[in-house]
């Protein structure tokens, strides 16, 4: 595919030395002129196809993929965030209830054992005795998070932060995937002409640049989502704070512990932990794309020119699942650091802490186990998420192109 430009200088009267050379020359000569097939979309190198699809069409494809992924994998994101917040020593719930109110709510015939991990179970204290057993407020793993969230807060709380995830995913992926396509095509053309030996590293560079742009642009929403997912909601009858109310609680001195009066400093806190996010997302994207591209090329290469939409879906999902899982596992320590910085309640400390300091703090407190807190749900979330996003994106791109080609 990369040698398409060289085929233009090949003499049509040259006699190929072998049948393999003949087939190669034919494929290189016809490549630029033929209409893109399904295989080209999955393969990701059809320049003609990429030029025909505009930026807006790519954004539509990416946005649809982002919405689907955000809804399906949000419970795993909640589990991962709760486990990491617990490891950071964040209180599992809001401040303790008033003792007299607790006596009233219990009633004359209720005992503390009746409240064992029930929805009304709180972390309050009566004298020196806990209202509820300590294990009600400790998560032992992903399934334990699911069980306790459903029992204490309700099934719908597993989708806590979905509105933030959707508000984040659509613009983020709408920036990320189209920019990745554009950067990849441009850098591939550049390296093919000037430094062919660098071409295998193009997905790594393009993915890193695109992810950085998306991360910085939408970071405040990511901050809100992490805070929304990290804390247990005591009152299930009250609607929890949404994205904007959560962000107001971060920047407003009246609604948080933030005593910084400088408006610039207050709004700067919305980007608390952006360094840790970039430190996580850039290598994540580099590992993901440098694994995904050759893997899906290999899978689609076995199918050949007869590939259809189902082949594209399967190849992209499989490659995305493996690549996303590997990248998520490798970057888990940086995800732990990002979560700790985002849920930090002390504004001065949040602004002064660095990613390196946070990682050292995690290492001193929990060692290797602390650095990989939540790796299970993180990997379980990232694998299908990347698979869904990439496969849906490529299939919708293919569908849009087919519709456009048929109409013309």
TrEMBL record:
Membrane topology, record value: Multi-pass membrane protein
Keyword terms: Membrane, Mitochondrion, Mitochondrion inner membrane, Repeat, Transmembrane, Transmembrane helix, Transport
Keyword flag Transmembrane helix: yes
Leader peptide range in chain numbering: none
Highest taxon, organism lineage: Eukaryota
Main location: mitochondrion
Compartments where located: Mitochondrion inner membrane
Region of interest (Disordered), residue spans: 1-21
Solcar repeats: 53-186, 198-298, 311-399
Any one of the GO CC terms: mitochondrial inner membrane
GO BP, sorted A to Z: mitochondrial transmembrane transport
Family: Belongs to the mitochondrial carrier (TC 2.A.29) family.
Name of protein: Mitochondrial carrier protein MTM1
């Amino acid at each position: 595919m990369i040698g398409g430009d060289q085929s233009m200088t090949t003499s049509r009267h040259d006699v190929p030395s072998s049948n393999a050379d003949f087939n190669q020359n034919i494929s290189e000569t016809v490549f630029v002129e033929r209409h893109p097939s399904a295989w080209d979309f999955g393969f990701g190198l059809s320049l003609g196809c990429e030029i025909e699809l505009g930026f807006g069409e790519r954004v539509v494809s990416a946005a649809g993929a982002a919405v689907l992924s955000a809804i399906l994998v949000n419970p795993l994101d909640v589990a991962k965030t709760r486990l990491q917040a617990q490891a950071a020593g964040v209180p599992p719930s809001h401040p303790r209830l008033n003792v007299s109110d607790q006596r009233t709510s219990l009633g004359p015939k209720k005992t503390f054992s009746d409240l064992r991990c029930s929805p009304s179970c709180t972390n309050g204290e009566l004298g020196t005795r806990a209202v509820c057993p300590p294990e009600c407020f400790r998560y032992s793993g992903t399934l334990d998070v699911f069980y306790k969230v459903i029992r204490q807060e309700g099934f719908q709380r597993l989708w806590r932060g979905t509105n933030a995830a959707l508000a984040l995913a659509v613009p983020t992926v709408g920036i990320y995937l189209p920019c990745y396509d554009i950067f990849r095509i441009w850098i591939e053309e550049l390296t093919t002409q000037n430094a062919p030996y660098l071409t295998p590293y193009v997905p790594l560079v393009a993915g890193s640049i695109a992810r950085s742009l998306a991360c910085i642009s939408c970071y405040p929403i990511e901050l809100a989502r992490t805070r929304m997912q990290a804390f247990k909601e005591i009152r299930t009858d009250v609607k929890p704070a949404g994205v904007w109310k959560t962000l107001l609680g971060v920047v407003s001195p009246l609604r948080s512990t933030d005593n910084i009066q400088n408006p610039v400093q207050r709004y700067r806190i919305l980007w608390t932990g952006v360094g840790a996010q970039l430190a996580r997302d850039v290598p994540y994207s580099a590992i993901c794309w440098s694994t995904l591209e050759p893997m899906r090329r290999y899978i689609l290469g076995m199918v050949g020119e007869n590939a259809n939409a189902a082949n594209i879906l399967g190849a992209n999902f499989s490659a995305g699942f493996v690549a996303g899982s590997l990248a998520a596992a490798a970057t888990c320590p940086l995800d732990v650091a990002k979560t700790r910085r985002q849920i930090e309640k002390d504004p001065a400390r949040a602004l002064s802490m660095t990613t390196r300091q946070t990682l050292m703090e995690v290492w001193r407190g929990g060692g290797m186990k602390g650095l990989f807190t939540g790796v299970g749900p993180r990997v379980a979330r990232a694998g299908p998420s990347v698979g869904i996003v990439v496969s849906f994106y490529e299939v919708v791109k293919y569908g849009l192109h087919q519709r456009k080609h048929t109409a013309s």
